[in-house]
Write a structure and sequence with these properties.
mainly alpha; Nitrile Hydratase, Chain A; three-stranded mixed sheet; 11 helices; 12% strand
Amino acid sequence: MSDHDHGDHDHDLAHPHDHDHDERGRRNALRVEALESLLVEKGLVEPAAIDAIIRYFEEQIGPMNGARVVARAWTDPAYKARLLRDATAAVAELGYGGAQAEHLVAVENGPKVHNVVVCTLCSCYPWPVLGLPPAWYKSFAYRSRVVREPRTVLREMGLDLPESVEIRVFDSSAEVRYMVLPERPAEAAGLDEAALAAWVTRDAMIGVGQPRAPERR
């Protein structure tokens, strides 16, 4: 279920096979755009309806949900314990859950351990708390390399962890999906739950970034 850092190699995040993946992605995007235009032209779909669906995933089923979960865990030790014991039930307390998060597990970062999440087979992802998966999460380069050389991949993505920190990789699947409970930044001490939520980024809940003050993003 989890792997450890197996050593680093100096590779760029781009992978030879990723060029094929990017080309397929561009072709698929063009097909979707053409299909959408055709449906709109024939009056079968309203552009406003498409925009509403996109806004729903971006604004209501998005990283802000997970950020609220993390902020609650940072400020409520009892809730944090419930989250780490049964994340599915804990996020449901805040009104989140359903498809793509039926079996959710939260893994906690700390001074000595850093967790990162991947789906090596496709792009399994807890949509209700993290929103839509970013393109790089679905790329072959990330899916294949982060398991073999997580420290290098994280460094390439801007997160340079000390050698003393153990890196654990968790592989999401259709059965179990993971989210990271990042470590609360020391400089965020004294902030209330609402203010803390603004520090929590999607990348921090995947494990490829750290919480940051909103003005420093």
